[in-house]
Design a protein that fits this description.
The protein has about 160 residues and is mainly β. The chain contains 2 helices and 11 strands, in the order βββββαββββββα. Strands 1, 2, 3, 4, 5, 6, 7, 8, 9, 10 and 11 form an 11-stranded antiparallel beta sheet that branches. The mean pLDDT is about 90.
Length: about 160
């Protein structure tokens, strides 16, 4: 099986999520050479299980989630999954969709050693809370042009 060359690579024969399914995606460090994100089901018969992998996963109504307690364990050297983008599937692809590849697209990332939150690469001090749509790609979550986001400061207002 060649991971990352198809729109979706199933894990253990599990089905691909359908458009509209609620999932969590996270960068899979052991599979980093394939540049894929793991797709975790949040509902249905496979709830809590990884369905499979894709290089580019599109989500809408996205929440950025970091478990601070688990992040503290990571800072002590115990690598484990603790940060996700959660939302509803809009599509999967082995390439970055055109809508997310424009010059004005924004890149959101997460690094537990730099901050305890997701952040825009151009503004790492401002936590990203949610956004209308993202596409995963490489080390980033790409926010297509013309898509709004919400930062922690905006949420407090």
């Amino acid at each position: 099986m060649s991971i990352g060359n198809a729109n979706f690579t199933p894990k253990d024969g599990r089905p691909a999520p359908a458009v509209g399914d609620r999932v969590r995606v996270y960068r899979n460090l052991p599979l980093f050479k394939h540049r894929v994100f793991s797709i975790l089901a949040m509902d249905g018969p496979y709830k809590g299980l990884v369905l499979g992998y894709s290089r580019s996963v599109g989500l809408e109504r996205v929440k950025f989630i970091v478990s601070e307690a688990t992040r503290q364990k990571v800072l002590k050297g115990n690598r484990t999954v603790h940060a996700y983008a959660e939302g509803f599937i809009v599509g999967m692809s082995s390439t970055l969709p055109f809508a997310a590849s424009g010059e004005m697209a924004r890149k959101v990332t997460y690094n537990p050693y730099l901050a305890g939150h997701f952040y825009d690469r151009d503004n790492p001090d401002t936590p990203m809370i949610n956004c209308r749509q993202i596409w995963t790609w490489g080390s980033d979550l790409i926010i297509p042009e013309q898509v709004g986001t919400e930062t922690q400061e905006q949420e407090a207002a």
